[in-house]
Amino acid sequence: MDTMLEARLQTQQRNTQNSQETSLWSSGFGMKLEAVTPFLGKYRPFVGRCCQTCTPKSWESLFHRSIMDLGFCNVVLVKEENTRFRGWLVRRLCYFLWSLEQRIPPCQDAPQKIMESTRVQNVISGRVPGGAGEGQVPGLVKKEVQRILGHIQAPIHPFLLRLFSWALLRFLNCVFLNVQLHKGQMKMVHKASQAGLPLVLLSTHKSLLDGILLPFVLLSQGLGVLRVVWDSRTCSPTLRALLKKLGGLFLPPEANLTLDSPEGVLARAVVHAALAPLGLWTGALAVLRSLRGWGHSPRVCVRVHLAQPFSLQEYTINARSCWGSRQTLEQLLQPIVLGQCTTVPDTEKEQEWTPATGPLLAFKEEDQLLVRRLSRHVLNASVTSSAVMSTAIMATLLLFKHQKGVFLSQLLGEFSWLTEETLLRGFDVGFSGQLRCLVQHTLSLLRAHVALLRVHQGDLLVVPRPGPGLTHLARLSAELLPAFLSEAVGACAVRGLLAGRVPPEGPWELQGIELLSQNELYRQILLLLHLVPQDLLLLQPCQSSYCYCQEVLDRLIQCGLLVAEETPGSRPACDTGRQRLSAKLLWKPSGDFTDSDSDNFEEAEGRYFRLSQQSRCPDFFLFLCRLLSPLLKAFAQAATFLHRGQLPDTESGYTEQLLQFLQATAQEEGSFECADRNLAISAIWTFRDLGVLQQMPSPAGPMLYLSPTFTSRENQEKLEQFIWQFICS
Known about the structure:
Strand 12 and strand 13 form a beta hairpin. By secondary structure, the protein is α+β, with helices and mostly antiparallel strands. Helices cover 45% and strands 9% of the residues. The protein contains 29 helices and 18 strands. Helix 26 runs antiparallel to helix 29.
C-alpha cells in the first residue's frame, strides 16, 4: 500500500512558509504547460502478475484482457446510491446504513473442528513427540488446546464490527482525500475467491495504517471479514481483546518454542489447524502504534495495490521441479575474489536470509526452502505492483544526476523524461497532472532536504542540502531502482569490464573503442549478480542466472548503450538463416542450464559489442551506474573497515560499529547516501555468506569473527578492489 500525496495545488489557506515558497514560483518561464499522465498510449500498464513458470494456470485464468480498461474507485466514497434506501435522511445517514448492510459471515464451530483435526489428534493421542502419550492426560491436553485457541482468536462480534466500520469510514474520510483501488485488481481477487478456497493476503508493511485499512477495504468490496495476524507483544491486553472481536488473530508465545518442547508442538498444531480450515485471509500486517500527527498533516490520497492471485497448490507442485544445483556465496565468489580461479561455477547462488523461527520450524527442510522461495515470489510481485511516486523520481534526479544543483527549467524536462522511462519499463506511477504543478508539489514535500535559490535570469536553482538529508533522498530513490535494475546491473558490469583496460576518467570515445565479448559480459554480470543480495535483485527463484544475464544484455542493447560489432570473417548476428542444425535437442526448458548445455554458448564467443557513441549515452551510462552506488560503496567501505573493527562482537554490536564508520566517512567524503543502517546490515550478511565473517555460538549468543582467510591485509584489499571495480565514481 503506497501513500500518494495530492499532486494538485491546494487552494486552502497556507502558512507563511508556504506563501514564501509560492512567491518563488510566481515568476513564470514562458513555457507551455505539459500534462503528465500515468500511462503511455491508451492503457495504464498492468503490474504485479504472478509467475508464469511456477503458476501458469493462475497466470492465464486469473487475468482478463479487459482488466487494463478498468480504472480506479474510491472505496471511502459512500453515497445514497451505495445503500438500498433513498431520501434526504438517507443522504445524511448513508455511512451508518452502509455499515449495516455489510456482509459478515456467521461464526463457525471452530473449536470443535480444530479438536478433530488430524494434527491435533496426533498430539492428543501421543503419536508425535510431546503428545499426551508421554505422560500427559488427554483431558488436560484438550483444555490446553482450548486455552491456546482462546489466545489466538475469539468469535467475531457483528455489532461491534459494524460500529467499527462506520467509525473507520468517517475517520478515513477525514484523513484522506480518497482511497483508490484498481477495479481490475479487485476483479481478479473476486474471481479467485469464487473458487471456494482459503485466500491468504500478504502485506509489505508500507504504512502504519495497513492493519486497519486493508480489512476495511476488503470488507467494503464484499469479501467478508479479513482475519489479520497481529503481534501480541505490541498490543495491550485490552486492545488485544478488542481486536479479537474484530477478527484479529494472535500467535501464542509457545509457537516460537523449539521443536523438542511439548508446549511448542501442541501450540503449532493448534495454529496449523486454526489458520487453514477457516477459509480466512491472514497476513503479517503492521500494527497501528500512533495516530498523533495525522490531524496536522495535509489530506492525502492513498492507493491500495493488489498483485495477481495465484494457486498455492499449483505453486507447490511446479516449484519443486525448478530446483537445480546451488552453491553458497563463499563457494562461488571467494576463489574469484582471492584470484585463485577465474571461472564462475555454472550453478545458482544459495542465499536464504529468512530466519527459521516460529511455526517455520515445524516444517521439513524441503518445505522450509519452499516457503523461503515463495517469499521471494511474493516480494517480486509486491514491488512490481507498487506505483512509483513523484518523490522517488525527484530524489533520484537530485541524488544521482544533480547533486551539485540544477536549474528548475532543466529539472522540469528531466522529470518528464524519467517518468516516461519508468512507464516504458512497465512500471506504474502514482501521480498525474500539470508538469510544473507536480514538480512544485514534489519539491515542497522535499523542502527539508532541498534548497531553492533564485537566480538573476528569473530561474530557480534547486540544490540538495548536504548532510544527512542525502540519506533520506537515497531511501526515496530506492523505490525507483527496480524499474532500472537490469540496466543498472549491466552498466556496472560493463564498468567492471573496462576497469582494467581504460582509466575511468578517460573520454567516452576511448572507452567506446574497446571490444566487449558476450562471454566477458556474461561473466561480469554473473559476478555482480552473486554479490548483490537477492532481496534487492528481485530475481525469482525459478529464473536461471544465465537467463537473467541475457535479459540484462538485451536491455543494454534496447536502451542503446551497446551496439553489436561484427568481427571480420564472422557470420552477422542478424543472419539466422545460415545456422546449421545440431544433432542435439534444438530447444530445452528455459531454466535447464547444466554442464551438458555449455555448447549452447559456443556461438557467444564470436559476438562482440561496443559502447554506443550517441550523445546521450555517457550521461545515461553514469546515471545507471550510480543507481547501485549506495549499496556497492557501502560494501566497499565495509571491506575497508575489516581491519579497524573490533571483533569478535555480536551482529548488532558490529552493525553499530560499521554504521558509525559509514557516518564518519560520509562526513569526510560526502557519501551520505551510504550511511544507512539497512546497507550496513546487508553488507554484514553478505560478508558472512562470502566467508569474510564467521558466526559462532557463545554463552552470550552468536558472535561474529573475522575469517582466518581475511585476517591478512592483502586479502582484505583484494576484496575491496573486487567491489570497487563495479563502482563508477
